[in-house]
Design brief:
The chain has 449 residues and is an alpha/beta fold. The protein is built from 13 helices and 20 strands. The protein starts with 5 loop residues before the first strand and ends in a 6-residue tail after the last strand.
Amino acid sequence: MATPRTVAFHTLGCKLNFSETSALSRLFEGSGYLPVKFEEGADIYVLNTCSVTEQADKECKKIVRQALRKQPDAFVVVTGCYAQLKPEEIADIPGVDLVLGAGEKFRVLDYIDDLSKAQGKGMVRAGEVRELNTFNASFSFGDRTRSFLKVQDGCDYKCSFCTIPLARGASRSDTVESVVANAREIAAMSTREIVLTGVNLGDFGNGTEVIEGVRPKKEALFIDLIRELDRLDEVARFRISSIEPNLLTDEIIGFVAGSRRFMPHFHVPLQSGNDKQLRDMRRRYRRDLYAERVATIKRLMPQACIGCDVIVGFPGETEADFMETYRFLQELDVSYLHVFTYSERANTPAAEMPGIVPHEERKRRNQALRGLSEMKRRAFYRQHVNTIRPVLFEQHKDPALMSGFTDNYVKVILPFEAGMINTIAPVMISDLAPEAEACAAELQHAFAG
């Protein structure tokens, strides 16, 4: 019997990319390829890229070099957002053999047999993103504890700093029936938690076919989807990965508050606490609406965890503007921040805006908000000392320990106990752990099961 060809994957960027990489791996495995770890060396390397920041672009080139050092004769395939935005540029990277755009990503097996190391420049297959009108379902696997399930793709919003609509096309979604079927398949793998992911998750329900230039009316909304998923006895936990504040309705918040399976954890992008920046960013809300959403969550779920995305150094952001954002976040009852330093992206309106913030100043503002985030996370964790919360246990890098997240996303670390990994059991949170982003905890054996 012939030895199967091997394939290795490397993923850059968001949870959505990880779910799609898993789907690509299943495609290869279904055609007789043997997936291996990136470090082991492979016949084919597939790099799934991101292009949210300039650093992600540089990372792509570095990973290609690393792959070819492992296996100089390997074929290198690059796909993902960066591949859709700059296919010719990637094709010129030494060693890249195939570049696939967003519409071609899941047809990768159609092109593999045509690859040749003698061709010089990489083959490019990247169609126009505006022609994308199909949805490819995907979910991550391999980690029995948690899976990322893609239910929506693309975005109709036109935020002035963002390249995602250029890389992924218009908003489109899976059907409720298909998502439920995928959730059941994930549960059959003994996965305990499913994280719903998408580019603009709250916009779930958009159709995937364009008829005479008009996309069909939504047949189901995000609230309809989560209601159906909440009925699945096979899945212990669901999380909502990220949802725009203008799409996070009182109905959704109220549903999660009374849900059996959706965790009291929201990640809601803010981007700026200054209305001038929000207007220039072309965001679809102002800070008062964001504050209302946070207040509603905390009124219905006082112990809920709320994460927040913020961009610093956007064009025109003065020191006074930044301090307004800082003070707004300081007073806001959120639990942690994801802080991004603005970077210019080609073909976006923001790249042409006046008032460029010096890079050193961007870095300083980033560090200031990261410090605020750490203070907020610790304050949120301290609220839970001497309380009991359910935890889904995971492997820790130290074999003497195990870790996990409570329902409301407090990370805990405690001594390893056999048989507890991938189970849910209550713990008593005892103190902040020496490790900055976790709490020490004790398993409550009387309630474990």
